[in-house]
């Protein structure tokens, strides 16, 4: 990806001996304390290495999952520190708190070029607080641990949070290479994308993703809808969807999008068949049914094979593709084929293909695709979507002054 060329870490001047706080996105999936996909850790390496090579004492801040503003061993970054050390090829000092005695001592113990990781910043309620003063108080404490701040956690730049936003207001700051590279790709998607421009949306967060359609209806040539949100569209068309994911209050929104797509000549493609099961996750009962014949009492967990071919055909001549959200519950083989079909089609795109979203990126790796077969695999789903929605990202905006 070579994003380092675009980092503006140079603006911080000579970093030798300086303590540099780096916000990274190390929010990796864990299963029983074991990291199942280390893509985000690997994506964060270049900036950490760049700073260490410049002689900085690198203090990495990150979060894991959604702890409730207090320490919770299930969300400890300890396994991430170990993996980060392995990947860097040098030990990473791990602070067992965020701004307490351990953090202070760990940072004080760093030599030039060494790296430390603070415990999960979300163990402190100030991190995600909506109250500026509470967030600011935590940011004040974090800022005592650094002489400068580098923002490199793309997955969180859409969040107005202490370690993303408020710390930047308190220290000399710069944009890391990962964030710079991500923004660069997003600009290519929004400013005069090469056509045909196809957007594929899926995943589970229905209302999050419906928002982006609003903006893309005016920009994309084709919109392909899979994942959980497809059922709200089918329901809007008056179809039976059994016990599939549904956001009832979004039905009028879906109807409006269907109408606008028609009016604006945007091809909005919905699956023609789906894989259903008797209950969520029940692979043994998985079967393909037509999208307009979903049996009551069944749950839709993937797009069907005919839809996979339809989507692949719609992607075949694309020059620009943005894909966010798996087509089905890819974590289980019986519901992974729709996601595989779309991923395969993206690898064949002769143009810019972008995969956005933590689970989507994990899916392509889990299904055995070579990351290099895609134009760009983004580390942040929510941040990408908000950018594409035309929203201002607080964590980017704050770096501008
Ligand atoms: P991303 O992280 O790429 O933005 P999301 O977090 O929105 O994607 O969604 C990923 C999740 O969506 C996956 O865990 C997948 O199992 C789930 N999912 C996909 N299709 C369905 C469906 N039909 N019903 C329920 N969950 C689904
Ligand atoms: Mg996700």
Give a short overview.
The protein is α/β, with parallel strands linked by helices and 401 residues long. It is built from 14 helices and 17 strands. Helices cover 36% and strands 16% of the residues.
Q: Which helices and strands, and how do they pair?
A:
Blueprint: E1 19-23, E2 30-31, E3 34-35, H1 39-53, E4 57-61, H2 78-88, E5 92-94, H3 101-108, E6 115-117, H4 132-143, E7 148-151, H5 162-170, E8 173-175, H6 177-190, E9 197-201, H7 206-216, E10 222-225, H8 230-236, H9 251-264, E11 267-269, E12 273-277, E13 287-290, E14 299-303, H10 305-315, E15 320-324, H11 337-347, E16 352-356, H12 358-366, E17 376-377, H13 381-388, H14 394-397
Helix pairs in contact: 1-2, 4-5, 7-13, 8-9, 10-11
Number of strands: 17
Helix content: 25-40%
Mean pLDDT: 94
Structural class: alpha/beta
Q: What is the percentage of strand-forming residues?
A: 15-25%
End-to-end Cα distance? 27 Å
Radius of gyration: 22 Å
Task: Write down the overall geometry.
Answer: elongated
The major sheet is characterized as: 6 strands, parallel
Low-confidence stretches: 1-5
Ligands, ions, cofactors: adenosine-5'-diphosphate, magnesium ion
Strand sequence of the main sheet, in spatial order? Answer: 5-6-4-1-7-8
> What's the number of helices?
14
């Amino acid at each position: 990806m070579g994003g380092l060329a675009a980092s503006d870490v140079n603006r911080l001047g000579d970093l030798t001996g300086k303590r540099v706080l780096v916000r990274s996105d190390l929010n990796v999936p864990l299963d029983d304390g074991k990291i199942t996909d280390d893509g985000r850790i690997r994506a964060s390496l270049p900036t950490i290495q760049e700073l260490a090579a410049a002689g900085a004492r690198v203090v990495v801040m990150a979060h894991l999952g959604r702890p409730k503003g207090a320490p919770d061993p299930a969300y400890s970054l300890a396994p991430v520190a170990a993996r980060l050390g392995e990947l860097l090829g040098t030990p990473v000092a791990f602070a067992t708190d965020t701004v307490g005695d351990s953090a202070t001592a760990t940072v004080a113990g760093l030599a030039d070029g060494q790296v430390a990781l603070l415990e999960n910043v979300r163990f402190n309620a100030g991190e995600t607080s909506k109250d500026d003063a509470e967030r600011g108080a935590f940011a004040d404490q974090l800022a005592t641990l650094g002489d400068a701040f580098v923002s490199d956690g793309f997955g969180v730049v859409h969040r107005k949070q202490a370690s993303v936003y408020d710390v930047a207001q308190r220290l000399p700051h710069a944009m890391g290479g990962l964030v710079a590279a991500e923004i660069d790709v997003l600009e290519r998607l929004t400013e005069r994308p090469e056509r045909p421009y196809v957007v594929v949306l899926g995943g589970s967060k229905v209302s999050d993703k419906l928002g982006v359609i609003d903006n893309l209806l005016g920009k994309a040539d084709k919109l392909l809808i899979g994942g959980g949100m497809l059922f709200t569209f089918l329901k809007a068309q008056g179809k039976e969807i059994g016990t599939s994911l549904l956001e009832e209050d979004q039905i009028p929104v879906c109807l409006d999008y269907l109408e606008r797509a028609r009016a604006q000549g945007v091809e909005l493609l919905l699956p023609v068949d789906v894989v259903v099961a008797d209950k969520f996750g029940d692979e043994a009962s998985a079967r393909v049914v037509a999208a307009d014949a979903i049996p009551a009492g069944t749950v839709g967990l993937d797009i069907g094979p005919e839809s996979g071919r339809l989507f692949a055909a719609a992607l075949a001549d694309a020059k620009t593709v943005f894909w966010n959200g798996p087509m089905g519950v890819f974590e289980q083989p019986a519901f992974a084929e729709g996601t595989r079909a779309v991923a395969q089609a993206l690898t064949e795109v002769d143009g810019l293909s972008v995969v956005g979203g933590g689970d989507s990126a994990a899916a392509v790796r889990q299904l055995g695709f070579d990351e290099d077969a895609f134009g760009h695999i983004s580390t942040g789903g929510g941040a990408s979507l908000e950018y594409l929605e035309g929203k201002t990202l607080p964590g980017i905006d704050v770096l501008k002054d």
